[in-house]
Amino acid sequence: MNDPTPKSAQPSIGYLPQGFEIERNIAARRLQGTLWRNLFVSSLLIGILALLVLIGTIVNDAFGYVALANKVDPANLASQPLKELSKEELVAILQANISQGLFRRLENDQPFTERSQENVLELVYERVVQQQVIESYDLWESLTQREAIEQELTSQNPKAKLEFRSWLNWGFLSRSMASKAEFSGVRNALLGSLWMIAITVVVAFPLGVGAALYLEEYSSGSRISRMIETNINNLAGVPSIIYGMLGLAIFVRALGFFTSGSFLGLSDSNGRTIISAALTMALLILPLIIINAREAIRAVPLSLRQASYGLGATKWQTIWHHVLPQALPGILTGTILGISRAMGETAPLIVVGAATYIVTDPSSIFSKFTALPIQIYYWASQPQEEFRRVAAAAIIVLLIALLSLNTVAIVLRNRFRRSL
Amino acid sequence: MVNTKDVTMDQARLEARELARTASAQAIDFRRRPRLGETIIQALLFICAAISILTTVGIVYVLVRDALLFFKLEEVTLWKFFTETMWAPQIGAVGILPLLSATLITSLIAMLVALPLGLGAAIYLSEYASQRVRGLLKPILEILAGVPTVVYGYFALTFMTPVLQALFGRDTVQVYNMASAGLVMGIMILPLVASMSEDALAAVPSQLREGAYGLGATRFETAVRVVLPAALSGILAAFIVAMSRAVGETMIVALAAGAGPALTFNPFQAAETMTGHIARITSGDISYGSIQYDSVFAIGLALFVMTLILNIISGSIVRRFREVYD
After folding, report:
1. Of A330, B13, B17, B203, which residue is 20 to 30 A from A5 by alpha carbon distance?
2. Cβ-proximal residues to A175 (8 Å cutoff; 6+ apart), any chain
């Protein structure tokens, strides 16, 4: 550190500034203080700036103009605009222009008699017209260079149509994975995440609260309690990918007979299923839940327990009727923090073997699955620009889910603080 | 005579005691009775707590077992593992150095970003900011801490790398490079350093600050010469925890640092870290028992030991060097 203070600022030297020197000394020290204060502030501002840039990058990628071109001109299919056609006419167009096998597969997915006109129209666009995104622009380009984009497009692709597109739209939420970015969606990834989180909570919550109760109420301060405590603190620092390896070796490989559902006669998958991933996640968030639950339990006043004992309640009656209800908001806050950790965690899922390309919805805990962060990882690692936009849209979905979870946690925490 | 009298006295006393005992037994027995339900519940809760021990045992067992399979192979020796400069287990090159150096370089870059910025932010929040400003700014850092790492990976790839390429030229900066991953990792760790350091600074009693002000110190002098040294153990612990987090971080490096082990010290080049390698190898349909499968567990063991040592050091720093003020 370059110390601009004169020697006299150090009292051990035993020299005191005299007269005019005092003012110079003070001025120098004040200047030094202001300089460093600005440095401290700016380091905090850099952090905030990083957050803003991060959000900006995501939004910038998720919205913007796209240039659409049709492989088949809709005018060749029907004399009227496609939108005005009835469902039957659209089905006829579809049948005439796609292969029999594909038509039957679509019929199998959902009979055409049950589909809506909009749905069939979408199919016609996807399968027959084959509207494709040939170029996409980010939000900044779209807003500032609209004319340049239009000119470039008319000179290179006169038939293409420019359209402002939010990559995050209803279709994106309701569609499944596809090989083309513009037809991809997060439906099965979202469902996979929800299935996994549900099981993770069902496993981790009772285990975590039970462990916290044992440590706080039954063996507080004993040697075994201290040992478990150290152990939990160390577990909280283990990298998440190591948990993934534990899951791979134990849940996927060693217990594959159970986690694949073979013991129930379901054998369409190996052990790389929702249940394996959920159990791995449960182990991962367990330390977090235990640490938070212990704090909440410790905050319950001792007088409450003593009053309960005084009335003749047993230990468990005291815990169940008095300690747990009091500690519940704190415990729930910790659990929600654990859930949001599990929701965004990617590395263990990769190792446990979430599928990156899968088009079916998960149907049971023994299904193969994909999850939101896995999809983001897969899309972000693709070289095409369109996939980057889809990744940004998926990130917005994930961040909104996390934000709402955290809001619930904050509300709970505030209620908890007020009641004490 | 005296003796017989004593005997009768004793007998009387005994009888009285016996009487009293039976009487009280008939009324209420105050002794603790074993309750089966309570015992079962306690046992169940103990099992819950023991799961955490089982997890640790499971991790160590799994890593050591499969790593041992790897080290038992003829072409693998511990010496080669730590000294060879190439990692390609299929063809017998088993030196962990390329992966280790990439891990250390990305972590080092992350530390260079996170430590000064995190500490600066912590000093500002704890020593300068008013209650209101702190209440406004801390949640923002918490949001930064809550962003999933895969999002940071996307950020590194789509923002940081183009920025670095624009600054230093496309020829020097590769598409996948350690600098981009390290810088973004630093941003990711910044809130951790800031909040742990702030906790340490806030724990310093206010009498110390008041004493310094009383002697005429400026706010800066108080913060840096009085409060900071008093909180040093907590801040050191924060740094080491941050290092351990950086070493174990996976998604940012998997997305942005490159795929393929390479021994290079140029941060603008691509090199795969230990975690990135584990993620890439296990993401495919890897066959159990192959040399690649076992080698990944050897890397995992090395990673686990590294982070464990860092965590233990940080824990012991807090315990040993904590300044206690009454």
Report:
1. B203
2. A183, A184, A185, A186, A187
State whether A40 and B123 contact (CB < 8 Å).
Answer: yes
Which residues in chain A have their CB less than 8 angstroms from residue B35's CB? 314
CA A110 → CA A105, B94, B291, distances in Å? 9, 53, 46
Give me the residue from B42, B125, B241 closest to A44, CB to CB: B125
Ordered per-residue pLDDT tens for chain A, 420 residues: 444 444 444 555 567 777 888 888 889 999 999 999 999 999 999 999 999 999 999 999 888 888 887 777 777 777 777 777 787 777 888 777 777 777 787 777 777 777 777 777 777 777 777 777 777 888 888 888 888 888 887 777 777 778 888 888 888 888 877 777 777 888 888 999 999 999 999 999 999 999 999 999 988 778 888 888 889 988 988 999 999 999 999 998 888 888 887 777 776 667 788 999 999 999 999 999 999 999 999 999 999 999 999 998 999 999 999 999 999 888 998 899 899 999 999 999 999 987 777 777 788 888 888 899 999 999 998 888 888 999 999 999 999 999 998 888 878 777 766 554
Residue A129 φ/ψ, nearest 5 degrees: -65, -35
Cβ within 8 Å of A, B 181-220 = 187, 190-191, 194, 215, 218-220
- Residue A136 bridge partners (DSSP): A66
- B 39-58 residues with CB < 8 A to A: 41-42, 44-53, 55-56, 58
> Domain residue spans in chain B?
1-31, 87-321
Cα angle A13, A19, A25 (rounded to 5 degrees) comes to 55
B191 CB neighbours in chain A (<8 A) are 47
Residue B150 is nearest to which of A57, A58, A373, comparing CB atoms?
A373
Interface confidence (ipTM) of the complex: 0.85
Mutation for A interface: B150, B304, B307, most A CBs within 10 A: B150
User: How close does chain A come to B309, measured CA to CA in Å?
Assistant: 10
Where in chain A are the domains? 7-59, 63-169, 187-419
A58–B151 CB contact, under 8 Å = yes
Which of A402, A408, A372 is CA-nearest to residue A277?
A: A372
| B249 contacts chain A (CB < 8 A) | yes
The two tokens of residue A151 are 């000119």
**Tokens, residue A109:** 């997915």
Instruction: Quote the CA–CA distance of A163 and A142 in Å, as a whole number.
Output: 10
| Topology of domain B87-321, CATH | MetI-like fold (1.10.3720)
Give the right CATH number for A187-419 from 1.10.3720.10, 3.40.50.2000, 3.30.1360.30, 1.10.760.10: 1.10.3720.10
- Report the length, in residues, of chain B: 326
